[in-house]
Amino acid sequence: MNNKNSNGLKGLGPLGWLLQVITGVFLIFFLGIHLYLANIDFGHPIRFFTAVLENLHNGYWLAFYIVFTYIVLYHGLNGVRGILYDRFDSQKSRALIKYSLSVLYVVTAIYGTLLALAVSRIAIP
C-alpha cells in the first residue's frame, strides 16, 4: 500500500516524528555540553583528550557519553529513514529500510558502548 501523501517526517508516523523532535531537543543540550567542553573549557586537543579520559572514569560522564551516542544514532538514522521513505514508498522497500536501519542502530550502539567502556579503562596520563 503506497501512501503518496506522506512525505518527510510525516512518513515516519506520529511516534517517529515525536521521537525525532524529542531527540533533537536533547541533541541541543548534549551537543552544547560537548562543544563547551571541547572548545571553550579546554581548547587544546591534548588537554581535551585528558579531560575526556578523566570524565570517562566517572560513571555519570560515562553514562552521558553513552546516552549521547544513542540519541545521536537514533536522530540521525531516523532522519535517514524519513529521507529514504520519501524516495521508496512501497511497503516492501520501507520494511527493508526499517529493518536495515534498525540493525545498523543496534550494531553501532553496541560498538559505541563497548568503545566507551574500553576507553574508560585507559590509564590517565
Task: List the SSEs and their pairings.
Elements: H1 13-41, H2 45-56, H3 59-87, H4 91-119
Transmembrane segments: 12-38, 58-80, 101-124
Organism: Acidiplasma aeolicum
GO cellular component, one term: membrane
Q: Can you give a write-up of this model?
A:
The chain is mostly helical and 125 residues long. It has a single domain (8-119), classed as 3 helical TM bundles of succinate and fumarate reductases. It has helices at residues 13-41, 45-56, 59-87, 91-119. Helix 1 packs across helix 3 and helix 3 (59-87) packs antiparallel against helix 4. The longest helix has 29 residues, at 13-41.
Task: Please outline what is shown here.
With 125 residues, this protein is mostly helical. The protein has helices at residues 13-41, 45-56, 59-87, 91-119.
Helix and strand pattern: HHHH
Instruction: Return residue spans where pLDDT drops below 50 for at least 5 consecutive residues.
Output: 1-7
Strand proportion: under 5%
Radius of gyration: 18 Å
